[in-house]
């Protein structure tokens, strides 16, 4: 196992992120699934400069992106988007694309269970075929019920992976597991060799180590199943707007250059634009919690 991180949680130049995570012992990055934001040649040069490899990317399934959409054209555009993320990862010599099939934050279905399952399976198969041609693995990720109605548990993600291909895997996230699973350790064991990626944030979605999750037991269960991929940091710090705020200086008050869609995605997760100091502390705390357990 090795320590990785997402970078969609804060709008900052990639070089700043890479310099920060290298300092704390991260080996790779799961880059934001927005190919238009990254020139491949420049990005590869930065990765080489800082000695950080691309592990993969996560799809930012926001706005009109939805493999479960009733509208055929919308599904086709969503497939094209996922393919563009896969191509970017391939060109950055990454291994994984974590695929969230339905729009994050959408909790009302477009069709019946049977209709949506058919739409998502067909769309994911098309994405999977493109990924196989590009030498990239697909891991479908279940989210908690407050972020998606489509699927929330490891067993459901495995059902989709099985419907796509024996070579399709799953990604699990400790934060979502803690909400949805009767036994989060049993869910990890159920995924077994089909677990291609693992995301980490504590039960309060702050950095690992700032909540109640049992990280030695979680990492120990990953070792038990022979998991050898990335443990990918994905804290999404909730903002407290009351006088009881534990971190009163966590929100960035200065103007930040960020696409409106990305800002909405962050805000829809209960977070906000984070100050560099607070963000840096969260990155450090995750590393201090996880690295001693995976080494």
UniProtKB/TrEMBL annotation:
InterPro entries the record matches: Sugar_Epim/Isomerase, Xyl_isomerase-like_sf, Xyl_isomerase-like_TIM-brl
Keywords assigned: Isomerase
Gene Ontology MF terms in the entry: isomerase activity
Superkingdom field: Bacteria
Record domain Xylose isomerase-like TIM barrel: where: 18-242
Protein name, as recorded: Sugar phosphate isomerase/epimerase
Taxonomic placement: Bacteria, Pseudomonadati, Pseudomonadota, Alphaproteobacteria, Hyphomicrobiales
């Amino acid at each position: 196992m090795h320590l990785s991180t997402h970078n969609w949680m804060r709008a900052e130049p990639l070089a700043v992120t890479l310099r920060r995570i290298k300092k704390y012992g991260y080996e790779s990055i799961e880059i934001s699934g927005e190919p238009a934001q990254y020139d491949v040649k420049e990005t590869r040069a930065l990765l080489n400069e800082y000695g950080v490899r691309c592990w993969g990317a996560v799809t930012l399934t926001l706005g009109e992106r939805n493999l479960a959409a009733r509208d055929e054209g919308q599904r086709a555009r969503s497939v094209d988007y996922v393919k563009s993320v896969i191509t970017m990862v391939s060109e950055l010599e990454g291994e994984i694309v974590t695929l969230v099939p339905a729009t994050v934050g959408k909790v009302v279905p477009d069709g019946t269970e049977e209709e949506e399952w058919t739409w998502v399976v067909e769309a994911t198969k098309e994405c999977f075929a493109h990924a196989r041609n590009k030498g990239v693995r697909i891991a479908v990720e279940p989210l908690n019920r407050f972020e998606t109605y489509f699927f929330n548990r490891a067993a459901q993600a495995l059902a989709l992976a099985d419907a796509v291909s024996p070579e399709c895997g799953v990604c699990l996230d400790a934060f979502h597991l803690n909400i949805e699973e009767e036994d989060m350790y049993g869910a990890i064991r159920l995924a077994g060799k089909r677990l291609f990626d693992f995301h980490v944030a504590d039960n309060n979605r702050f950095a690992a180590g700032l909540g109640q999750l049992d990280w030695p037991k979680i990492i120990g269960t990953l070792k038990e199943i022979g998991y050898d991929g990335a443990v990918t940091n994905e804290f999404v710090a909730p903002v407290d707007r009351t006088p009881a705020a534990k971190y009163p200086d966590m929100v960035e008050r200065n103007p930040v250059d960020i696409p409106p869609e990305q800002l909405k995605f962050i805000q829809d997760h209960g977070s906000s634009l984070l100050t560099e100091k607070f963000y840096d502390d969260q990155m450090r705390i995750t590393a201090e919690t996880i690295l001693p357990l995976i080494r």
